[in-house]
Design brief:
4-stranded antiparallel sheet
Length: 157
């Protein structure tokens, strides 16, 4: 049985491509043994989220399936990409003083890191960074140190 939801992506030629995502459970499969199914339907609207007895796509429609764990990894990557796209600065990188950093700012560079916390102690700014992998660490800077940001969230500290 297949159940799921549909939404639309846009392809490289700017055409809408309906996408159906759901679960394909064969008799005897459950939990980690179930498969997550993705079907691209460039010629027909995405199927409704109601259960269907056959998880097979129409002829010519690409279909992939994966384990629930792999689906979570793909979903996490899509969430990170969506956040990056939503929060990207139209003006490009901006440089601020270390004491002006605020939670959510993203440092520019090969390995982006996000400000998780910031506090100033006299002439020293203590910045807690968080990597995309979830690791955190604190670095201390002179308050006048210039830090280049890829993304600056609006608002105040």
């Amino acid at each position: 049985m297949m159940a799921g939801s549909g939404f639309t992506f846009t392809d490289a030629e700017n055409h809408d491509v309906p996408v159906a995502v759901g679960i394909a459970v064969a008799p005897g499969e459950a939990g980690a043994d179930a498969r997550v199914s993705v079907t691209l339907s460039p010629t027909a609207p995405a199927p409704s989220p109601s259960p269907s007895p056959s998880p097979s796509p129409s002829t010519g429609e690409p279909r992939w399936s994966c384990t629930p764990a792999a689906a979570r990894e793909v979903a996490a990557a899509l969430v990170r990409a969506a956040e990056e796209a939503e929060n990207a600065s139209a003006e490009g990188p901006v440089t601020v003083r270390a004491d002006e950093l605020r939670r959510g700012d993203v440092r520019d560079g090969e390995r982006p890191m996000t400000v998780d916390g910031a506090r100033t102690d006299g002439s020293t700014a203590h910045i807690t960074w968080k990597s995309v992998e979830g690791r955190t660490w604190t670095q201390s800077y002179d308050v006048n140190t210039a830090i280049t940001l890829r993304r600056r969230l609006p608002g105040t500290r």
